[in-house]
C-alpha cells in the first residue's frame, strides 16, 4: 500500500484552502491481462453549487464519485470537504462516516414504505439531529407535498427521483453526489424535475457533484465543471469559462457556444425584447417574462455568431459587439473553424468557414466586430 501511495505526488501536502472539495485519487482496474484502466485525478471545486462531471463513456466519472464516497477500497489519495479531512494516505474515513448523499440513475427507494416513510427513515438513520423545519424545507424544495402518502410503485420516474433526492438531503450531507440522476427519465419527466434541481442549488449551500452526458442539463444547472477523458481531468473551472473553450468536448458540432451570466436591465414591452448586460457588453434578447431581474444565464451558440471587419449598421442583426480574437481552432468539420473571442471579461465563440477566415485574413489578437444573430436565456 505504501508503495502505491507514494506514487501520488504530494498527496498529503496541505490542501489549498479550507473551503471547497479537494480530491486527489489514483485507482487502477485490471480489465484484462494486458489492459488496465487508470484513474488519476486532482480536482478542486467550490464548497457550494453544482459542479458537473462530464466526459465520454468510460472516462472514469462514476469511478471518481465512488472514490469520493469511499467505496473504492483500492483508491489511494486524499480528500477534504469544506475543511473536513476524509482521506489521506495514512487514514481513511469509512463510507458510513462520510457525511454524503448519493443519488443514482435509478431511484432506489424502499418499496414497502410510502414516500413519507422513506423520508422519515433517512431522518432516523442520520447521525445528526434534524432541525424540525428541515423536512418541510426539503419537501417544499423538491415539490413532493402531494405525493407523500404514495408508495414508490405509485409514483412516476420523475417523482421517485425527487423523493430519492429529498431522502439524500435529509441525511444532511456535507456533499451530494448525483450520478446521471435524470438519465433514466424521458424528456417530459426531465423538464419536470430540472426546476427542482435549480432550487436545490440555491436552497442548500453544499457542494454537489453532478455526473451528466447531457449538455443542456449542464448548461442549465452547473456553475462549475470537471471534464474527464481516459481517467484524467482535462479541464476544470467555471462553466462560463469552459463552455467557450473550443478545444473541449463540452459542446460538439452545432452545440458549441458560450454561456454568459447576464442581468436584465430593461424590458421593451412594445417589441417584446429585453436588454441584458454581461461583463463585456449588452445584448437584446426576446423577452422572457419572469420576476427575476437578477442573474440569467444566456447561451450564445457559435453558429449564431458572425464576424465583420467594420460595424454594419444596415443589417437586421440587433446585437453587435466588439472583441478581440483569442484563439482559432479547427472544427471537427474540416470546412469550419472555431474562433474564440474575448469581449470584456467574457468569451464568445464564432463558427466560421475556413474560407471566410481566410477571406477576412483573421489572426490572433485582431480586433473585430461580432454580430450575434440569436441568443437565448437558458431555461
Ligand atoms: N469494478 C470494476 N472493475 C473493472 N473495471 C471497471 C470497474 N468499474 C469500472 N471499470 C472500468 O473503468 C472505466 C471507467 O468506468 P466508469 O464507470 O468510471 O466510467 P464513466 O465515465 O462513469 O462511464 P459511463 O458514462 O459509461 O457511466 C471503464 O473502462 C470501466 O469498464
TrEMBL record:
Residues 314-379 form the Mop domain. SUPFAM superfamilies: MOP-like (SSF50331), P-loop containing nucleoside triphosphate hydrolases (SSF52540). Residues 23-255 form the ABC transporter domain. Keywords: ATP-binding, Cell inner membrane, Cell membrane, Membrane, Molybdenum, Nucleotide-binding, Translocase, Transport. InterPro entries: AAA+_ATPase (IPR003593), ABC_transporter-like_ATP-bd (IPR003439), ABC_transporter-like_CS (IPR017871), Mo/tungstate-bd_C_term_dom (IPR008995), ModC_ABC_ATP-bd (IPR011868), Molybdenum_import_ModC (IPR050334), Mop_domain (IPR004606), P-loop_NTPase (IPR027417). GO terms for molecular function: ABC-type transporter activity; ATP binding; ATP hydrolysis activity; molybdate ion transmembrane transporter activity. Coiled coil: none annotated. GO terms for cellular component: membrane. The keyword Manganese does not apply. Pfam families: ABC_tran, TOBE. The keyword Cell inner membrane applies. PANTHER family: ABC TRANSPORTER I FAMILY MEMBER 10, MOLYBDENUM IMPORT ATP-BINDING PROTEIN MODC 2. This is Molybdate ABC transporter ATPase. It comes from Paraglaciecola psychrophila 170.
Amino acid at each position: 500500500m505504501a508503495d502505491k501511495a507514494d506514487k501520488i505526488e504530494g498527496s498529503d501536502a496541505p490542501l489549498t484552502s479550507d473551503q471547497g472539495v479537494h480530491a486527489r485519487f489514483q485507482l487502477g482496474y485490471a480489465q484484462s491481462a494486458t489492459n488496465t484502466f487508470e484513474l488519476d485525478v486532482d480536482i478542486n471545486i467550490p464548497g457550494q453549487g453544482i459542479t458537473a462531471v462530464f466526459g465520454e463513456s468510460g472516462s472514469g466519472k462514476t469511478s471518481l464519485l465512488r472514490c469520493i464516497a469511499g467505496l473504492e477500497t483500492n483508491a489511494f489519495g486524499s480528500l477534504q470537504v469544506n475543511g473536513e479531512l476524509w482521506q489521506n494516505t495514512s487514514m481513511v474515513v469509512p463510507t458510513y462516516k462520510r457525511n454524503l448523499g448519493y443519488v443514482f440513475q435509478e431511484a432506489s427507494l424502499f418499496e414497502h414504505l410510502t414516500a413519507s416513510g422513506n423520508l422519515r427513515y433517512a431522518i432516523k438513520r442520520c447521525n445528526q439531529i434534524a432541525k424540525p423545519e428541515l423536512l418541510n424545507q426539503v419537501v417544499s424544495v423538491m415539490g413532493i407535498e402531494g405525493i407523500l402518502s404514495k408508495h414508490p410503485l405509485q409514483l412516476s420516474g420523475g417523482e421517485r427521483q425527487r423523493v430519492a433526492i429529498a431522502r439524500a438531503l435529509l441525511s444532511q450531507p456535507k456533499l451530494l453526489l448525483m450520478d446521471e440522476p435524470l438519465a433514466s427519465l424521458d424528456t417530459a419527466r426531465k423538464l419536470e424535475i430540472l426546476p427542482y434541481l435549480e432550487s436545490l442549488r440555491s436552497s442548500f449551500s453544499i457542494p454537489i457533484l453532478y455526473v451528466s452526458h447531457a449538455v443542456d442539463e449542464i448548461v442549465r444547472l452547473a456553475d462549475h465543471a470537471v471534464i474527464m477523458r481516459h481517467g484524467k481531468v482535462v479541464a476544470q473551472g467555471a462553466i462560463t469559462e469552459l463552455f467557450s473553450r473550443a478545444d473541449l468536448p463540452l459542446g460538439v458540432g452545432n452545440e458549441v457556444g458560450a454561456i454568459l451570466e447576464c442581468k436584465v436591465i430593461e424590458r421593451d414591452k412594445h417589441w417584446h425584447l429585453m436588454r441584458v448586460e454581461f461583463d463585456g457588453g449588452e445584448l437584446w434578447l426576446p423577452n422572457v417574462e419572469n420576476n427575476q431581474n437578477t442573474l440569467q444565464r444566456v447561451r450564445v451558440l457559435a453558429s449564431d455568431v458572425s464576424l465583420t471587419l467594420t460595424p454594419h449598421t444596415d443589417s437586421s442583426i440587433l446585437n453587435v459587439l466588439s472583441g478581440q480574437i483569442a484563439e482559432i481552432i479547427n472544427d471537427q468539420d474540416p470546412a469550419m473553424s472555431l474562433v474564440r473571442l474575448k469581449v470584456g471579461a467574457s468569451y464568445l465563440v464564432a463558427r466560421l468557414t475556413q474560407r471566410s477566415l481566410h477571406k477576412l485574413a483573421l489572426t490572433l489578437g485582431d480586433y473585430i466586430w461580432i454580430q450575434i444573430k440569436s441568443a437565448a436565456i437558458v431555461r
